[in-house]
Amino acid sequence: MPARPQQIQARTVVERGNVKLVTVSGDHRRAVLLFDGDCGFCTTAARWAGKGFRHGERAEAWQLLGDQGLEALGLSRLDVTQAAWWVDANGHRERGHRAVGRALQAGGGWRRGAGRIVLTVPTSWLAAGVYRLVVRWRYRLPGGTPACRVDGGTKEITR
């Protein structure tokens, strides 16, 4: 059974251009979608997903959590540089396309149905492949920059 998320200290506001990333709370007992805040495409997608959240879930750039915050969620820097993560209120973790599916389900309405499709076999196999393609080519997608480039499945950790 995964460790229950712990409380950590809230982090500071980081502004990149016109995008403001903020940790909302130090309380990690609510579900969180972790994404790469250095990637414009990822930030845009996570913010879009976060607008639909209905029960206190949040989308948060992993860079704002620091090592202590990641550890409290049972993750490492290596984990979060390789994929997006969904950590639910009980500490259950899902990565990649499954994290996207869970975030969509948290949105309700048509997003909930789309999330179910992403998580259900056989369409989940297709979703996994699409997720890998998006990760590979995200620097070429709308909002992407050279900083979004991931080579060989991992992004270079510079912090």
Strand content: 5-15%
Q: Uncertain regions: pLDDT < 50 for 5+ in a row? A: 1-28
Global morphology: globular
How many structurally independent domains? 1
Strand order of the largest sheet: 4-3-5-6
Helix-strand sequence: EEEHEHHEEHHH
Mean of all residue-level pLDDT scores: 82
Number of helices: 6
Radius of gyration: 15 Å
Largest sheet: 4 strands, mixed
Query: Helix proportion of residues, in percent?
Result: 25-40%
Cα end-to-end separation: 30 Å
Give the helix/strand class.
Answer: alpha+beta
Q: Count every beta strand, where a strand is a DSSP E run of 2 or more residues.
A: 6
List keywords for this structure.
four-stranded mixed β-sheet; globular; alpha+beta; two-stranded antiparallel ribbon; 6 strands; 159 residues; disordered N terminus
